[in-house]
């Protein structure tokens, strides 16, 4: 298999992030170390120093507030069809410091015309965001519910705190007194 992992320390409540890299680019990422698509997270470790340095530098710059987009090459192998269309729409249309609702993203993506049940497209987008193989690179944390924060991968407690942290970093939410944001 042409996949190896880079682990990057983060200030997130979930701890370090893991990025699966291939010759094409980043193919998967994980906030909490869980496996993706049956792949064991963190095995094998990436030995390509250029790839490791690039991923580590860009992610570190994002978390210190010096970079607004990661601009890393991506390998889309784990996102196909409508899922990929929705993720690419999110990536191209919702920039740093902005949010979009699940329903708005469903409408903008143009892939849900056949769904007529009220809320079905928004729920489907929510499921797609939960299955985003390129978390952080494709900013699913910027997709929120019409009436609040919405869900996020990693379970309600950790996932919601990660989403809140990222939206605070990007200036969408005001920092709380206990927020440990960028130090640099």
From TrEMBL:
GO BP: methylation
Gene Ontology molecular-function annotations = methylated-DNA-[protein]-cysteine S-methyltransferase activity
Q: Kindly give the InterPro entries that the UniProt entry links to this protein.
A: MethylDNA_cys_MeTrfase_AS, MethylDNA_cys_MeTrfase_DNA-bd, MethylDNA_cys_MeTrfase_DNAb, WH-like_DNA-bd_sf
Name the keywords, alphabetized: DNA damage, DNA repair, Methyltransferase, Transferase
**Domain Methylated-DNA-[protein]-cysteine S-methyltransferase DNA binding, chain residue ranges per copy:** 86-172
**Reaction catalyzed:** a 6-O-methyl-2'-deoxyguanosine in DNA + L-cysteinyl-[protein] = S-methyl-L-cysteinyl-[protein] + a 2'-deoxyguanosine in DNA; a 4-O-methyl-thymidine in DNA + L-cysteinyl-[protein] = a thymidine in DNA + S-methyl-L-cysteinyl-[protein]
Per UniProt, the enzyme's principal EC class comes to: transferase
Provide an example Pfam family for this protein. DNA_binding_1
Top-rank taxon of the source lineage equals: Bacteria
Key word 4Fe-4S present in the record?
A: no
* Enzyme Commission identifier(s): 2.1.1.63
- Name the family: Belongs to the MGMT family.
- Function per UniProt: Involved in the cellular defense against the biological effects of O6-methylguanine (O6-MeG) and O4-methylthymine (O4-MeT) in DNA. Repairs the methylated nucleobase in DNA by stoichiometrically transferring the methyl group to a cysteine residue in the enzyme. This is a suicide reaction: the enzyme is irreversibly inactivated.
How is this protein named in the record? Methylated-DNA--protein-cysteine methyltransferase
* Species this protein is from: Kitasatospora paracochleata
Q: What is the lineage of its organism?
A: Bacteria, Bacillati, Actinomycetota, Actinomycetes, Kitasatosporales
């Amino acid at each position: 298999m042409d996949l190896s992992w880079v682990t990057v320390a983060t200030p997130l409540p979930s701890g370090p992030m893991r990025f699966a890299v291939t010759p094409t680019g980043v193919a998967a990422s994980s906030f909490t170390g869980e496996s993706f698509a049956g792949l064991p997270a963190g095995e094998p470790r990436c030995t390509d120093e250029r790839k490791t340095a690039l991923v580590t530098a860009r992610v570190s710059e994002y978390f210190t507030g010096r970079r607004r987009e990661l601009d890393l090459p991506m390998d889309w192998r784990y996102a196909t069809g409508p899922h990929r269309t929705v993720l690419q729409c999110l990536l191209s249309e919702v920039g740093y410091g902005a949010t979009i609702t699940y329903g708005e993203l469903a409408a903008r993506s143009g892939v849900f015309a056949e769904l007529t049940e009220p809320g079905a497209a928004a729920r489907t987008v929510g499921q797609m965001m939960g299955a985003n193989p390129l978390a952080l690179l494709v900013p699913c944390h910027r997709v929120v519910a019409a009436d609040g924060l919405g869900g996020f991968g990693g379970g309600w407690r950790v996932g919601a705190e990660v989403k809140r942290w990222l939206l605070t970093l990007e200036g969408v939410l005001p920092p709380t007194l206990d927020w440990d944001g960028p130090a640099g």
